[in-house]
Amino acid sequence: MADMLTLTPAAAKRVAAIAQKQAKPAILRLSVEGGGCSGFQYRFGLSDGAEGDDLVSETEGVRLVVDPVSLDLVAGSTVDFVESLGGAAFKVENPQAAAGCGCGSSFGI
């Protein structure tokens, strides 16, 4: 079931670096909340661990965890970390998203 979500090596490396600086486990939690300019928005944060019903995907020793409600909206997605002239950020490539905003932090289905 872990193939329902993918964390790229670039994203795993960034999560590991952030976690090390904050002395936390290398676990990135992705969740989806209502809001944003397209209806839903992605939320990222370090987590202390996975909950019992979370989906867990692992890349290079870094875990990506998602709750079941959010998973319904992001299944099949890839989480990447991109750096550009405009800044650096985690980016979700969501095959379910029918619409998105320019900044990439919100989406519609």
UniProtKB/TrEMBL annotation:
Q: Name one Pfam family in it.
A: Fe-S_biosyn
Instruction: Give the matching InterPro entries.
Output: ATAP (IPR016092), ATAP_core_dom (IPR000361), FeS_cluster_insertion_CS (IPR017870), HesB-like_dom_sf (IPR035903)
Q: Could you tell me which residue ranges the Core domain spans?
A: 5-104
Spell out the protein name for this chain: Iron-sulfur cluster assembly accessory protein
Species annotation: Qipengyuania benthica
